[in-house]
């Protein structure tokens, strides 16, 4: 019962509701492992805390002795988006797919035991599927059914083109489950539709339908959209400890509970305790520090967590300019017209993307310090010298070499 | 100019409007034949006057020296309708496809020179199309585009299921034109959408787009729906002369002009003359006789046309019972309980499908004659004897043997 309760923890959608209990009983009765599938799109191999939510659930099954199957969507990745409309889906060649898969598996190893996982490429069966059999498969699904997928429906209603092959991709994902005879397919809640396709196709192939387990989508550190690379709001599993700490500290307070539940490995009791402390007036900043350290401990180690906290406090919380860590920057004389630069021109070296106007405003607002002295004059001449220290905004520290 | 005018004659849709002129000029300039495609569904090999409308137009091109290509849809026929919902589309094996194609070609020979036509099977290229390439092809078309096809749109709006492979079939038909590099695709007006698909796919494969020529759909002899086997309202190209004559005589008067234009091979002048006669009060029955004879002359010969007219006049117009042609029917004594039967039981032998009540009503209405005598008593006992002549309704004559 304790096991079952833990497996249900955090799950957003379980289909059918009592499916997991039945599958577990069945596996025990038949003395076999459950096959638990997770699909992976090899066009985007960078994993973040959002992926970790699903992977940690997979890990639980692995610890219970069940079989994890990672399906690399190599067939569809190699077709890409032939319309060329979706730039993130350009076709990959086999080498690129393999390279991305290797990167991905390396990152997976931070959470699951990859040695015990089965890693398969769906091009192994889809490359050789005769077109006539593919059509037989495709015929099992109706247009109206596919149009129920929210994004398809929205685009159809708004007259945004949907290329026909896009409609077929969910069917192929479902066919992977037929091929692998999966018991469970996992994903984020945005994968519910595609996973359900697997159930239907398994049934039409006279196989027991898989159950679908969808985990909640962790929001990104900006607190708006789901965490995703394209939104530039992720904490990556391979981020260095200082970056992880800083990013976690930047989340809005409303995300604290979500991060506690989905991003940390605190026990239920610990989480309840922390929530209680917040209610009693604990500073949210302190809770975020605990969350940040917990996250770093999961993907690096305890020491890295402590060090990152110290760094953060020195860098962003203590006022002393000298204690900061400065990024060492070499400026070749080639970059310079003379030995001295205006404040604006100096800052522009580090903030290439900002306009001169934006930099001038930063300076006038007092956001720029040079050698521990606030410079509010945009056109003051600054002499360029080794060890000149420049602070721009709250977080960026540079030292010339 | 005369040639061009004749090619345009009866055409319902020409896409683009001046496409035919351009294609003809191009062919002349390049000193080559035009390739003119007609698709054929090998699940329904029985040709009728509706098909003849298109085929006679093909024949015109053939007479000008161009290349007719008949595409047997063997790939899709062998897939059929895997959902099993559409019973007319059950999958055929290769033998059945070949058999149907042979039947079809034999019927084609009544109109076109099949020896000079190219007859191809689309399974030749679709069977070996790798699924990945099929997806590339499919991706060229959007869902919204396919949903413009009237029947798809209607079914989608009315929540009648459309299986996904149905959406793909028009794309495959279009691909046939890519494969064959057709200059012209012909069909009935109900094929406009599918033929246009060929234009689009040829363009996306950097080929010159075919022009689309759609002929009007001849209505069936009941004057309502288009002529089609499923509506049981056809005049078949292989119907015997008497059947052709009888069916033509049965068309409603409003169809006369349509049949004159689409089913006969009268010249424009002859048709104008006949129309003038109708305006001046000619009996439509006489015009239908001329149409019937013309049709029989096309698919049988002049003599057969004259004989059929004589038969029709004797059988249905002259009153003399003795002059009728009676179907010779052998009734084995096994069928009979005794030497005599009630009128109902006797009629039931020939009209198995009618209920006793329906037969009784026919008798009471005076529609049954036995040996030139109207019998209005359903339960009168009729002695069964050789050469007993029975007339039921207007058209059915039987003689016992």
Describe this structure in words.
The radius of gyration of chain A is 26 Å and the shape is globular. In chain A, 46% of the residues lie in helices and 13% in strands. In chain A, helix 17 (343-350) crosses helix 18. With 401 residues, chain A is of the alpha/beta class. Chain A folds into three domains: 2-215, HUPs (Rossmann fold), CATH 3.40.50.620; 239-318, Orthogonal Bundle (Tyrosyl-Transfer RNA Synthetase), CATH 1.10.240.10; 327-400, Structural Genomics Hypothetical 15.5 Kd Protein In mrcA-pckA Intergenic Region, Chain A, CATH 3.10.290. In chain A, the strands form three sheets. The first copy, chain A, has a six-stranded mixed sheet with strand order 1-6-5-2-3-4, with helices on both faces. Chain A contains 18 helices and 13 strands. The interface between A and B is medium-sized, with 35 and 35 residues. Chains A, B: It is an enzyme of class 6 (ligase). Chains A, B: Its EC number is 6.1.1.1. Chains A, B: Pfam families: tRNA-synt_1b.
Write the layout of secondary structure elements.
The structure is a homodimer of 401-residue chains.
Chain A: H1 2-8, E1 13-15, H2 19-29, E2 35-40, H3 49-63, E3 67-72, H4 74-79, H5 94-108, E4 118-121, H6 123-126, H7 131-138, H8 143-146, H9 150-157, H10 164-180, E5 184-188, H11 192-204, E6 211-215, H12 241-249, H13 256-263, H14 268-279, H15 284-299, H16 302-317, E7 327-329, E8 340-342, H17 343-350, H18 356-364, E9 368-370, E10 373-374, E11 381-383, E12 389-392, E13 396-400
Parallel strand pairs in A: 2-3, 2-5, 3-4, 5-6, 7-13
Antiparallel strand pairs in A: 1-6, 8-11, 9-10, 9-12, 12-13
């Amino acid at each position: 019962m304790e096991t079952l309760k833990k497996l249900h923890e955090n799950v957003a959608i379980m289909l059918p509701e009592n499916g997991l209990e039945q599958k577990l009983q069945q596996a025990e009765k038949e003395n076999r492992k459950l096959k638990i599938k997770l699909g992976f799109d090899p066009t985007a191999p960078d994993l973040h805390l959002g992926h970790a939510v699903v992977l940690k659930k997979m890990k639980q099954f692995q610890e219970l002795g069940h079989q994890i199957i990672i399906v690399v969507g190599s067939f569809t990745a190699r077709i890409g988006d032939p319309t060329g409309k979706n730039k993130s889906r350009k076709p990959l060649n086999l080498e690129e797919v393999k390279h991305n898969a290797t990167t991905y598996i390396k990152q997976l190893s931070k959470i699951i035991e990859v040695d015990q996982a089965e890693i398969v490429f769906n091009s192994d069966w889809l490359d050789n599927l005769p077109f006539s059999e593919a059509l037989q498969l495709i015929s099992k699904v109706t247009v109206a059914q596919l149009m129920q997928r929210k994004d398809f429906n929205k685009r159809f209603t708004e007259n945004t083109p949907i290329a026909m092959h896009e409609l077929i991709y969910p069917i192929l994902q479902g066919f992977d489950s037929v091929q692998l005879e999966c018991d469970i397919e996992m994903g984020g809640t945005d994968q519910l539709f595609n996973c359900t396709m697997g159930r239907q196709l398994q049934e039409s192939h006279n196989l027991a339908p898989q159950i679908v387990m969808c985990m909640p989508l962790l929001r990104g550190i900006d607190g708006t959209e789901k965490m995703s690379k394209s939104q530039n709001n992720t904490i990556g599993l391979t981020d260095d400890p200082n970056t992880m700490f800083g990013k976690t500290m930047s989340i809005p307070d409303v995300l604290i509970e979500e991060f506690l539940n989905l991003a940390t490995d605190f026990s239920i009791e610990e989480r309840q305790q922390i929530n209680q402390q917040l209610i009693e007036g604990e500073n949210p900043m302190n809770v975020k520090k605990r969350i940040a350290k917990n996250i770093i401990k999961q993907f690096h180690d305890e020491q890295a967590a402590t060090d990152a906290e110290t760094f953060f406090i020195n860098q962003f919380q203590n006022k002393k300019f000298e204690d900061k860590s400065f990024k060492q920057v070499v400026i070749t004389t080639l970059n310079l017209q003379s030995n001295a630069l205006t404040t604006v021109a100096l800052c522009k070296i580090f903030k290439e993307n900002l306009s001169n106007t934006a930099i001038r405003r930063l300076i006038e607002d007092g956001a720029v310090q040079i050698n521990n002295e606030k410079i509010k004059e945009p056109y003051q001449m600054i002499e360029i010298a080794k060890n000149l220290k420049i602070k721009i905004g709250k977080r960026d520290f540079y030292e010339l070499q």
